[in-house]
Amino acid sequence: MAPADVTAVTVTLNGLPWIERCLDSLRGTATIVVDHGSTDGTLELIRDRFPDVRVIEQDNVGYGGGLNAGFRAASSRYYLVLNSDAWVVGDAVSTLTAFADAHPDAAVIAPRLSNPDGTLQRSVRGFPTLWRLATEYLFLRKLAPRTRGLNAFYAGGFDHGRPREIEWAMGSCFLVRREACDSVGLFDESFFVFSEETDWFYRFHTAGWKIWFLPAAEAVHVGGATHGGRMFTENLRGHLRFFAKHRGPRDAERARRLLLVGVRLRGLLFRGERGTPYREAARWLASGSADSLLRR
Asked: Which entry of 61, 89, 235, 261 is 20 to 30 Å from 288 by CA?
């Protein structure tokens, strides 16, 4: 049984088929679903199969904005963020909560993520810097993917088998302390989708809170099911917004130019349909400065 002082919050927009497994895994935990306009039967399934789940319907204000609505409707000491295409395994919620109770300086505790086939989903990340973007978008990390020097962005060499303090982790599933949220504020809703958790964890980090990875708790994440990998340009926009907010306009413009080189290279290397998102992203990045792109 999950502790009574945890509220799980998930955001849906056409969440079938995974939302049923997601909510099944949360039975015994107070749960809020924030729906952004599902038309695929998601709402009907939730109301029929999970009558105890509270549903909030609102316009699509982005992923962070949806989670914020759920947080504001909850009154618990902890929030469990869970993607609609993810589910917790066993007593993961209790394990996360017990660890949080024992570590009062921890803002966030992230579980081990697995793919549906049981393999590890590498979820730990490093905060973006210009060098770290270069290692990803210029393929440098391929030279030494297990090293911190060339793959800190994806936490190269990180041991997912033991608990450790981290910079941040994928936002598919994590427990967050309400007190920490009150101290730094909720998600910045100017991040419509992508990098919203990076920004939030960075704010926790700079305020002195700890972020932990806890492999004793596990969740399964399908990965990309909610957007199907169709939002590459939005991912780049998230990078630029993070740099503009935390590194300043000069580094944001440098990031734009670096990303432009990287995606043009990918557009040349990957022909046909596979290269289409990169060529579209390159046109977007070339259409204005970082500042103008973020103001559109």
From this structure: 61
CA distances to 4, 33, 51, 138, 262 from 158, in Å: 33, 33, 41, 21, 25
Taking the CA of residue 168 as centre, how many other CA atoms within 13 Å lie in the half-sphere pointing to its CB? 19
pLDDT of residue 223: 80
Confidence at residue 224, expressed as pLDDT on a 0 to 100 scale: 66
Q: What is the predicted pLDDT for the residue at 1?
A: 47
Q: Total domain count for the chain?
A: 2
Report d(CA 173, CA 170) in Å as an integer. Answer: 8
Residue 148 pLDDT: 87
Q: Of 27, 41, 33, 26, nearest to 12 (Cα)? A: 33
Same domain, 178 and 291: no
Residue 64 lies in a domain: yes
- How far apart CA 113 and CA 217 sit, in angstroms, is 9
Q: What confidence score (pLDDT) does residue 157 get?
A: 86
CA distance 180 to 164: 19
CA distance 262 to 137: 5
Domain enclosing residue 60, as ranges:
6-123+160-221
- Which 3 state secondary structure label does DSSP give 271? coil
195-231 residue pLDDT tens: 999 999 999 999 999 999 999 999 999 986 554 445 8
Q: Which stretches of the chain score pLDDT less than 70?
A: 1-3, 224-230
Tokens 């109301």 appear where? 47
Output the DSSP codes for 125-159. E----HHHHHHHHTSGGGGSTT-HHHHTTTTTT--
Residues in Cβ contact with 79 at an 8 Å cutoff, skipping those fewer than 6 apart: 6, 7, 8, 9, 70, 71, 175, 176, 178, 181
pLDDT of residue 228: 47
